[in-house]
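stuck on this:

***
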Amino acid sequence: MAWILLIIAGLLETVFAIALKMSEGFTRLWPTVTFAAAAASFTLLSLSLRSLPVGTAYAVWTGLGASGTAVFGMMFLGDPVQVLRIVAIVLILAGVVALQLAGGGAH
């Protein structure tokens, strides 16, 4: 269950980052209101930390958030799509998997 909470928390981190961009410096109300995603993300991360190692959980949370945000930006916000960016995203995700394989499971 901790892993499910953590994955949802990482996805909500992506929602938060995109909402931050779309708020245009807090000048647009709707995206600003979606910052509730940040609170939900922190809450789910906190709950997952009850049974997951902090290093693994934080790496997964930030890795999913960073990767999800980068992919969303490239797909929908006109961020440059470059091979090196895609390789970097794959490396982030590979690092997250490696941390879990190295003993990052729930205890």
The CA atoms of residues 9 and 40 lie 7 Å apart. Residues 2-101 form one domain. The radius of gyration is 15 Å.
